[in-house]
Amino acid sequence: MSRRIWAGGSAVALLALVALAPALWSGAGAQSSATPPREGAPSREILNGRQLYSTHCQVCHGDGGRGDGPSAGGFATKPSNLADGRLMNALPDAFLVNIILHGGPAEGLTPGMPPFAAYLGEAQARDVVAYVRTLAEPKFRAESARQLVTVPGAPRQPIFFSHLIHAGSFQIDCQYCHADARRSEYAGLPSVERCVGCHKIIGVQDNPEIGKIHDYARRGQPIPWVRVFKVPEFTYFPHKAHVRANLPCQGCHGPIEQMRVVGAQTGPRLLHDLVRLVGLKPPAPALTMGWCVECHREQNRAHGRQAPLDCVTCHH
Ligand code: HEC
Ligand code: HEC
Ligand code: HEC
Ligand code: HEC
Ligand code: HEC
Ligand code: HEC
User: Fold this and answer.
1) CA dist., res. 109 & res. 79, Å (int)
2) pLDDT tens across 72-131, in order?
């Protein structure tokens, strides 16, 4: 579709050139007319993106996007390899556009990646992303890019820790960091030492967010993460039983690997109660008693499990 638009546009441009300035033909036409648009020829967006990329990005990220441009040597955290499809393909467009317009710190990355909002509009940033996608190996397919999931009211954490980067892009296993989930009541959060284990090298010198990890480690303090999912004290929720029953984390917590900041809309909701009053039966909002019981009923009925429905197992 977009390829046809480009082909049409270039044909009009060529006609104009032929009509107005035959003398320009050999020079101006050299790039676009010598080869007629082929199957799979780049769209107008990609061509525009390529131009912008070579003006603004190539100096650090290199011709092929591998992070090996002439200025790359000056950075402690090297310019990212934008051609590494294993890391890049799952990242949402909105995330990449945000970094391009507002710089690395907008997503917790280093200020070595500068903001371009003074030079590029949003549409242009999208064109650059469209071009960068063409550099990826393995190849980028539109269906492999995830959507960015933003939960309203997500808390501000003491360190900008991104699940999108750790669990989405780098695909670090949930249970590598939440290691208690399969063996205890709590899922647990990684210790400062666990962060330092990877971040002794990654980002230490020039990422202020990672500097904070080392400050906590030096002071011997745990990182004071703000809690998101919480049931009242009088309720018993054991992770172990649920993880061992092979329920995916995301079924209860949402698509965490698509969130730059983890948040949740949980608990009783007036709208929900009103809809129920009218006689409809929407699924109960997460972390309410109705939610627990609905799933237990369903699991017992459809999967022959023995999830408790009696009061004392959940309240003691
Ligand atoms: C002055 C050097 C410099 C320029 C110019 C530059 N970048 Fe970067 N870029 C970096 C560095 C350094 C990083 C790594 C940041 C980190 O990992 O903390 C980076 C990271 C990125 C990332 C994050 C990818 C990831 O790892 O998730 C994207 C996307 C990106 N750059 C795109 C661009 C685009 C597009 C342009 C041109 C509009 C551009 N950059 C221009 C230095 C630069
Ligand atoms: C298994 C290795 C590993 C562990 C463990 C780890 N990280 Fe990372 N972290 C990474 C990688 C890889 C990146 C991406 C670096 C880049 O692209 O510049 C990263 C990036 C970051 C960044 C910059 C981007 C962002 O997410 O905002 C921050 C901040 C960060 N990590 C904080 C933490 C904290 C806090 C912990 C502990 C709770 C932690 N990391 C544990 C590997 C790890
Ligand atoms: C590199 C370590 C790391 C990985 C990998 C990781 N997490 Fe986390 N997770 C954290 C840290 C640190 C926090 C606390 C900060 C926050 O809420 O973002 C956290 C918070 C959470 C929370 C919210 C906890 C609360 O306060 O209620 C959930 C839910 C969660 N992670 C689920 C997951 C899932 C699901 C995955 C895999 C898709 C995953 N995590 C992968 C480190 C990690
Ligand atoms: C059946 C639903 C369910 C599943 C499956 C589930 N969780 Fe949870 N998770 C919860 C509930 C409910 C809470 C709040 C528990 C509380 O307040 O005691 C919670 C809390 C958390 C917390 C914060 C507090 C803590 O327990 O340390 C983290 C982190 C977390 N979950 C991660 C995970 C990860 C990672 C997985 C997958 C390995 C997972 N959860 C699977 C329902 C679930
Ligand atoms: C997505 C479905 C689902 C949700 C949501 C869910 N559970 Fe469960 N629950 C299960 C399954 C499956 C089992 C395991 C049954 C089995 O072992 O056969 C279970 C088991 C339990 C057990 C028994 C543990 C044991 O050691 O035998 C308790 C207690 C429990 N759940 C509490 C809760 C509470 C409290 C909530 C809500 C905060 C909740 N569950 C939400 C599916 C769910
Ligand atoms: C599968 C787990 C589960 C079972 C079974 C269960 N509850 Fe609950 N209950 C919860 C959770 C989670 C909450 C807290 C969330 C909420 O208030 O919706 C809760 C909240 C409550 C509250 C406080 C409500 C409020 O508005 O503050 C009462 C009272 C209660 N339960 C009574 C019972 C009684 C009585 C039974 C048995 C008939 C029972 N529960 C069975 C999980 C359970």
Assistant:
1) 11
2) 999 999 999 999 999 999 999 999 999 999 999 999 999 999 999 999 999 999 999 999
Residues 257, 258, 264, CA angle at the centre, nearest 5°? 90
Distance CA(71)–CA(58), nearest Å, equals: 9
Q: What are residue 104's phi and psi, to 5 degrees? A: -55, -45
What's the token pair of residue 36?
Answer: 């007629």
Distance 190 CA to ligand 3 centre (A): 9
pLDDT for residue 39: 61
Q: Which residues 6+ apart lie within 8 Å of 172 measured at CB?
A: 166
Which ligand sits closest to the CA of 186?
4
Torsion angle (degrees, nearest 10) of CA 230, 232, 235, 240: 10
* Residue found under tokens 């999967």: 303
**How many angstroms is it from 186 CA to the middle of ligand 4?**
7
Rounded CA gap, 186 and 14, in Å?
Answer: 66
Please give the distance, rounded to the nearest whole angstrom, from the Cα atom of residue 175 to the centre of ligand 3: 9
For 90: left if phi > 0, alpha if psi spans -120 to 50, otherwise beta; the answer is alpha
Radius of gyration over every alpha carbon of the chain, rounded to an integer in angstroms: 26
User: Which protein residues are within 6 Å of ligand 1, measured from CB?
Assistant: 56-57, 59-61, 71, 75, 77, 79-80, 82, 91, 96, 99-100, 104, 109-110, 112-114, 116, 128, 132, 169, 203, 207
Over the chain (316 residues), the average pLDDT of each successive run of 10 is 30 33 31 48 94 98 97 95 96 97 97 98 98 96 87 94 96 96 95 95 92 97 96 96 96 95 89 90 90 97 96 94
Give whole-number Cα distances, 64 to 58, 67, 69, 80, 132, in Å: 8, 8, 9, 12, 9
